[in-house]
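B., you asked whether I could sanity-check this one before it goes into the benchmark set. Here's the sequence:
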Amino acid sequence: MATSLTRRVILSGAVLALSLACGPPDRHQPPHDVVFDTLGDTVVAHVLSDGLWGAGATLVTDLVIGGSDDDPNAIFGGLADLMAPTPEGGIVVVDWMVPQVLEYGPHGEFVRAYGRKGEGPGEYENAVVAAVGGGLIAVADAPNRKIVVYDSTGGIHAEWRFEGSAHLTEALSIGRPNHVVLRTLWPTTPEKPGVAVFPQHVRLTVLSAEGESVDEVSAPYHDEAEFYQGYVPFQPQRLVTWHPDGFVVTGRTDVYAIELFRPRGRILRLVRDWTPVPISDDEWTLYNQSRDFMNSRGPRVPYPEIPRVKPAFSRILIARTGEIWVQRHTPSVRLGPQPTDIVAAGGSRANPWKEAILFDVFQADGTFLGSVSGPTGMYAGAISGDTVWAIGLGEYDTPAVVRLIVERPGG
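And here's what the prediction gave me:
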């Protein structure tokens, strides 16, 4: 039942955008129904339609870099999960097997390499990249706990150390103007009983390209829900990321709730209905083999069993241009033989079960643009506008950088 704090109306997408951003509605956009609630300090937007793009948007391959022996400057041993799109339309990637930070132009041409492996000035043991305004490339090196910022010629613009631990897959993002946002994890106290690892809290530090502290944000949680502290496939979790316009975006994967902690006004919560995707018996068996192996090593608290259904989504990616891309779980497809022992076969990299790409895309004011589907077995590493840069496979199953473009119904 609605309370005095709740107002419920059905709005078009244009009206919702007007109410949240105070911008003029676009009379040419199709209807975009949303249930709009105000609950205390939170605006809840419950999306009911296919969005402004309509049904049927897809990601189509536009460019492939590497994956063959044709270009000696694009032979990758292994590509890191995150990439950095440049303002010029190119991409910066990390070949983690070297390791080496490499830039390619908008037509796939090799531009330059940044730094090299090592512990000295401008060197790194491992790397996560972000492209900052003004042609600067920021590289986070978690093993050495430092950030190196390179200029457009590959020279060192700045270098500094940081405290706290950082997960390499999500250590670095960008802010405007020309800011580097470092994500670190800090242990919380007291330790919570019944969890497999020490609870950790996300801290986001906004720095200038010279390493000067601009802001520090402890990740906000709008609810008191508890989540398992430790990575187990398909366990519900709370995700935290940074929007380049200067606010935190969080997500609860168990209920499909995305929260935007905007610097002015109420918190905006984006909600969609969803149907849990079941996990096939063969896929579930492989994941539990990995879990049993980890438990055999004697953790303080055993890792729980793999769920039989997947949560609503797995990732939140913020495009360089500010759109919020929520990666939905989809049914897995087996792309190779089923190993009898996943640990002996090489662990997660030998898992043949892969999902097709499916994103829900929102504007920063909460407007739902639509859902877009893509190929099976690719991993999205960076987004800018309607362009998705992903990791795929080329000839002989060698890694390749793939540029995908959103193709909307009707062109």
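One thing to flag: The chain has one domain: 50-407. Otherwise nothing jumped out at me.
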